[in-house]
Design a protein that fits this description.
Helix content is 34%, strand content 16%. The protein contains nine helices and eight strands. It has an eight-stranded mixed sheet, with helices on both faces.
Length: 281
């Protein structure tokens, strides 16, 4: 382990962590299409990452939603009465509730429009254009989510009720918000305490493609959600196309649910050599 890695872990002392195994995530990709109607799953907006929110909440809560994107309601509803109090307080920000309502919001920026433009260009026989983004910190990403947090709070106020856990799930796309901590194992300890509207008991933030954290209003701290295994004979799933682990499970979920259409979160990254000419920098 390098000195930099050791220093990073030293700084993370005291970080709260909840972890699940590969088997649990694999179960979630099967359980959702098995227990939620195909019509409801296909209503989930791929561009906004609602399908990812459904997969991740199912995996870490260990239960399937009782409703998904029902007309006029919140995006995801879970019956959480049987969950242990530790899971309720750290993942949902509330104890002693029967239901948890999730409202999913994606931080807007230009990549989704660029992604759609790529598809149009390729269909027209043209080459794709260039998308530019500025690297920021994870805290900058959370700050950029403020309008979406307020919007989620408004919708939870209108669609949910105080006797339920009310949760905002914020999605951030890496090509919109590349963040400096993207290669770190843990980032929860780097995040500032957010000020949330009264209507929100907990906030999940997915820094695509690989970091997931939760802020709990009752516990007043961030929790890092990890995926892995401590078993010596547990192999990491084989991943294709230079994707991250959670992208691998996204692909499984989309396939098992029969959801067609491209997801802007399902992509691979590879490095290529670019020839430079003249005075190019």
């Amino acid at each position: 382990m390098s000195d930099d890695s050791t220093k990073s872990f030293d700084e993370a002392i005291g970080t709260h962590i909840r972890a699940i195994t590969y088997d649990v995530m694999d179960w979630a990709t099967e359980a959702l299409p098995a227990h939620v109607s195909a019509d409801d799953l296909k209503k989930l907006k791929l561009a906004a990452g609602e399908h990812l929110a459904a997969m991740l909440t199912t995996a870490y809560l260990g239960i399937v939603p009782v409703a998904a994107d029902v007309r006029g309601g919140v995006d995801l509803v879970y019956r959480v009465a049987d969950l242990d109090s530790g899971a309720l307080s750290s993942l949902l920000g509330r104890n002693g509730v029967e239901f948890a309502d999730f409202e999913v919001k994606s931080i807007p920026r230009g990549f989704r429009e660029h992604d759609a433009a790529i598809s149009r260009a390729l269909k027209g026989g043209e080459g794709p254009g260039t998308h530019l983004a500025t690297v920021v910190s994870a805290n900058d990403v959370v700050e950029a989510a403020r309008p979406m947090i307020d919007k989620a709070a408004k919708q939870l106020r209108e669609k949910s009720s105080p006797d339920r856990a009310r949760v905002a799930f914020i999605m951030s796309h890496f090509f919109d918000w590349p963040y400096t901590e993207c290669l770190d194992l843990l980032i929860a300890h780097t995040l500032n305490a957010p000020t949330l509207p009264d209507e929100i008991d907990a906030m999940w933030v997915f820094f695509a493609p690989s970091h997931l954290v939760v802020w709990s209003a009752v516990e007043q701290h961030w929790t890092q959600l990890l995926l892995g295994s401590l078993k010596e004979d547990s192999a990491v799933p084989e991943i294709d196309f230079d994707m991250e682990l959670l992208q691998h499970y996204e692909g499984l979920f989309l396939e098992r649910a029969g959801i067609e259409g491209p997801s802007p979160f399902y992509y691979g990254i590879k490095t290529v050599e670019v020839e430079t000419t003249g005075n190019s920098e």
